[in-house]
């Protein structure tokens, strides 16, 4: 399953549309006024599915992940000098990114790739292609990409 993650060009807060391979809107993401990033995820019918919420007053970006109203985990950026590293505390998954922070892979505890995301260059807005192995992992995969993109924004990248 592939998802195209596109930031809207003209929006006051972070807003994204997420499309499937056929070009149908699968999710919409709306940024909300708050201290730090707060991204609300909705399905195509407008039903709330989850939230990615930045935890403020931390040295490096940290985001809580909520599905419905229940906290399911967190992702945080670690201090490194060269290659960006994110620690994911959810389902035993691990995140690995490249030097430029454009490509990411998420693997489960057995080392099997669950999701990969790569940033498409030469677009007016942030655009990622997310490849998800199982459709039931799509929402969490989207949350991870949203958090990483917001972390880069928080640090001015």
Automatic annotation (TrEMBL):
<comment type="similarity">
    <text>Belongs to the LOR family.</text>
</comment>
<dbReference type="InterPro" id="IPR038595">
    <property type="entry name" value="LOR_sf"/>
</dbReference>
<dbReference type="InterPro" id="IPR007612">
    <property type="entry name" value="LOR"/>
</dbReference>
<dbReference type="InterPro" id="IPR025659">
    <property type="entry name" value="Tubby-like_C"/>
</dbReference>
<dbReference type="Pfam" id="PF04525">
    <property type="entry name" value="LOR"/>
</dbReference>
<protein>
    <submittedName>
        <fullName>Uncharacterized protein YxjI</fullName>
    </submittedName>
</protein>
């Amino acid at each position: 399953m592939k998802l195209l993650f596109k930031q809207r060009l003209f929006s006051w807060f972070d807003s994204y549309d997420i499309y499937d391979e056929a070009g149908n809107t699968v999710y919409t993401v709306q940024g909300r006024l708050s201290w730090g990033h707060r991204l609300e995820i909705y399905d195509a019918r407008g039903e709330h599915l989850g939230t990615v919420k930045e935890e403020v007053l931390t040295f490096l970006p940290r985001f809580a992940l909520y599905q419905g109203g229940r906290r399911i985990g967190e992702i945080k950026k670690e201090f490194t000098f060269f290659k960006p590293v994110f620690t994911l505390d959810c389902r035993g998954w691990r995140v690995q990114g490249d030097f430029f922070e454009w490509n990411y892979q998420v693997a489960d505890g057995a080392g099997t790739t669950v999701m990969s995301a790569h940033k498409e260059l030469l677009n007016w807005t942030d655009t990622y292609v997310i490849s998800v192995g199982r459709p039931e992992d799509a929402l969490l995969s989207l949350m991870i990409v949203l958090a990483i993109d917001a972390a880069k924004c928080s640090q001015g990248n």
